[in-house]
Specification:
- The complex is a heterodimer of chains A (about 120) and B (about 500).
- In chain A, strand 6 and strand 7 form a beta hairpin.
- Chain A has one domain: RNA polymerase II/Efflux pump adaptor protein, barrel-sandwich hybrid domain (OB fold (Dihydrolipoamide Acetyltransferase, E2P)).
- Helix content of chain A is about 25%, strand content about 35%.
- By secondary structure, chain A is of the alpha+beta class.
- With about 500 residues, chain B is an alpha/beta fold.
- In chain B, the strands form three sheets. Chain B has a seven-stranded mixed beta sheet, with helices on both faces.
- In chain B, helix 5 packs parallel to helix 11 and helix 6 crosses helix 7.
- Chain B is built from 16 helices and twelve strands.
- In chain B, about 35% of the residues lie in helices and about 10% in strands.
- In chain B, strand 4, helix 9 and strand 5 form a beta-alpha-beta unit.
- Chain B folds into two domains: about 260 residues, 3-Layer(aba) Sandwich (Aspartate Aminotransferase, domain 2), CATH 3.40.640.10; about 130 residues, Aspartate Aminotransferase, domain 1, CATH 3.90.1150.10.
- Classes of the chains: A alpha+beta (about 120), B alpha/beta (about 500).
- At the A-B interface, loops of A face helix 15 of B.
């Protein structure tokens, strides 16, 4: 499965028409220890780029934007159970935020791939 | 190196536990005669059944507790307080003297208006100074802090939109990503939706970026000027014109007004509303030293909606218009009229400096910041350091982070050097920001002392003394606190069962 990235440091992995979304390893490192996160409710719908979640560290609080339009079909129970550390330990694995049922695959295809994102981060 | 002592005290620095931990059930500062006929006789069965668990302390114990705590406080009266975006300047004692005149200090807000004419004249005079300095035709004195002033301005904008019949269509407020966090929070609290203008590499807000966001649904833009990167926004007038042309209003965050007093009149820049932090720019105390005050100046377009009370001048007296009926006032911000004590201090500051003195204040504040920038630039990365700054110096940790030391480590090391740290990790648009605002208060020798300390710390980074930084602070009353654990599992209330020493004392 390919992973794609946004300029705002969300990642998306597509499995059929369900996209798993989280924040990138780079984003998690920049944030430092996460102390709070707020995930959307299952059933909520977001347009691409809309405020979808909030993540907060000792340093800062950031909005997490929907990298792709869709409806929330699952939210990470570990995070909902206040296991914030999982976001630092495995931001691109078990620390995923939500799963979205997507409406438009073209949005996914237009996002940065691994190499393009690595280049983008290098330039920051 | 610190030596562990038996008492926990270090030199004459006293270790001080919580009052609940030192207090004991039998101690008391006051001896009252035992009530006749038993303790709870007249309470009809409502007498106390268990111990109240208040700490019992004698008067000298109580005195010492609070004096010891006060000695742990860092204050502008102790030394340089470089907290960026906070304008921690000296509070002249002349202000305190004026605030304690009994004609101002001992008033009650409900006493007859004829007996408080002097106080009303003082408020009117302060309003006159604020309007003159900002070039604005109206001011609401009542907001009690910066964010409260922002709220006042945004409510005035909302009322103006309602009067235009556009309250339901104009819902979007533009806020640059470099803004103080209170700006988007205020817009949201006032019922608007927030639309962020992304940052550019030069730290400034660009006309093109604003224009791209403008539309018939935009209510206002909120911009801080000088901005949180310590830079004056050069396109501010054109941005204001574009926003007005699109039918929106321009809220200016006045938190950094200290840099431009007497130099720039916000009214000339097209500002519709701006709060003024009296506790920053006009030296009324803050940072634990007293309440804030955030009077909000308003343009001609917003003036009719200014909240009550209004000071109304009569031929021989002044009155307060306390009710909004018959006016377009959007309501009121608080009970009564605001922070009288701060009005007295701020006006004293203004009158003792005079208009030329106030201009010199902002010139000296900017000069001091640029002197620090010039001294520190060779040792730290200064993101926009190729140009002069306004009143604050923005550094980041990009040059020291590869060597293992981050902004937070620098801040902790400053504690050991006896300084309150600078503002850390703000503005958010700069990674690892260190924001330093010396204000005009500091003489050159103090600036040099601080710069010497910062440079010595930079040299320690270069020498690879990473552990020195990770261990800091070593000399402060508390060592490094676990920010993460404190945020993840906060203890917000002292509980007796959590502390065995207190339990023993109670027994």
């Amino acid at each position: 499965m390919t992973t794609r990235y946004t300029k705002d440091h969300e990642w998306v992995r597509l499995d059929g028409d369900v996209a798993t979304v989280g924040i990138s390893t780079y984003a998690a490192e920049q944030l430092g220890d996460v102390v709070y996160a707020e995930l959307p409710a299952v059933g909520a719908s977001f347009a691409q780029g809309a405020d979808m979640a909030v993540v907060e560290s000792a340093k800062t609080a950031s909005d997490v934007y929907a990298p792709i339009s869709g409806e929330v079909v699952d939210a990470n129970a570990e995070i909902k159970g206040e296991n914030w550390q999982i976001i630092n330990d495995a931001p691109q694995g078990d620390g995923w935020f939500v799963k979205l049922k997507i409406a438009n695959k073209a949005e996914f295809d237009a996002l940065m791939d691994e190499a393009a994102y690595a280049d983008y981060v290098k330039g920051l | 190196m610190t030596t562990e002592t038996t008492s926990g005290n270090k030199g004459l620095q006293q270790a001080e536990p919580l009052i609940f931990e030192t207090g004991h059930a039998t101690g008391t500062g006051v001896d009252l005669p035992a009530p006749k006929g038993g303790k709870y006789e007249k309470l009809g069965g409502l007498g106390r059944k268990a111990a109240l668990e208040l700490p019992g302390l004698s008067e000298p114990e109580t005195m010492r507790h609070f004096v010891r705590l006060s000695q742990k406080n860092y204050a502008i009266d102790l030394g340089l307080f470089p907290l960026g975006s906070c304008t921690m300047k000296h509070n002249p004692r002349l202000n305190e003297r004026a605030a304690r005149f009994e004609g101002f200090a001992d008033l009650h807000p409900l006493q007859p208006i004829s007996t408080v004419q002097g106080a009303l004249e003082l408020m009117d005079e302060l309003a006159h100074w604020l309007m003159t300095l900002t070039g604005m035709p109206a001011v609401a004195l009542s907001p009690k802090a910066g964010a409260h002033g922002e709220f006042c301005g945004m409510l005035a904008i909302k009322a103006a939109l309602e009067a235009r019949g556009e309250a339901t269509t104009r819902r979007r407020v533009l806020v640059p990503s470099s803004a103080h966090g209170t700006n988007p929070a205020t817009a949201a609290a006032a019922g608007f939706t927030v639309d962020e203008i992304p940052a550019r590499d030069d730290g400034r807000v660009h006309l093109d970026d604003v224009k791209a966001k403008l539309g018939p649904d935009v209510a206002a833009i909120m911009i801080t000027n000088p901005n949180t990167c310590g830079l004056f926004e050069p396109e501010i007038k054109n941005i204001a014109d574009a926003v007005h042309e699109a039918g929106g209003y321009f809220y200016c965050d006045g938190a950094n007004y200290n840099a431009i007093v007497g130099k720039v009149r916000p009214g000339d820049l097209g500002v519709d509303a701006m709060h003024i932090n009296l506790h920053k720019t006009f030296s009324t105390p803050h940072g634990g030293g007293g309440p804030g005050a955030g009077p909000t100046v308003l343009s001609a377009a917003l003036a009719p909606f200014a909240p009550v009370p209004h000071i109304v001048k009569k031929p021989t007296s002044r009155e307060l218009r306390e009710h909004a009926e018959g006016t377009q006032a959007f309501g009121r911000m608080c009970a009564f009229h605001g922070q009288m004590g701060m009005f007295t201090r701020a006006l004293t500051y203004m009158m003792s400096h005079g208009s030329d003195g106030l201009r010199q204040v902002s010139e000296d504040a900017v000069l001091n910041a640029n002197y620090l920038l010039a001294r520190l630039k060779p040792h730290f990365n200064a993101p926009f350091g190729e140009r002069p700054c306004m009143h604050e110096v923005l550094l980041d940790d990009s040059s020291i982070k590869p060597k293992g030391v981050e902004t937070i480590d620098m801040a902790k090391a400053l504690l050991d050097e006896g300084y309150h740290p600078f503002t850390t990790y703000f503005p958010l648009v700069v990674h690892g920001a260190m924001l330093i605002e010396p204000t005009e208060t500091e003489p050159k020798r103090e600036l040099d002392r601080f710069a010497d300390v910062m440079i010595a710390l930079a040299e320690r980074v270069n020498a690879g003394e990473v552990e020195f930084f990770k261990q800091a602070p070593k000399l402060a009353p508390m060592r490094r606190l676990d920010d993460t654990r404190a945020a993840r599992s906060p203890k917000l209330r002292w509980k007796p069962e959590a502390n065995s020493a207190a339990k023993q004392a109670a027994e």
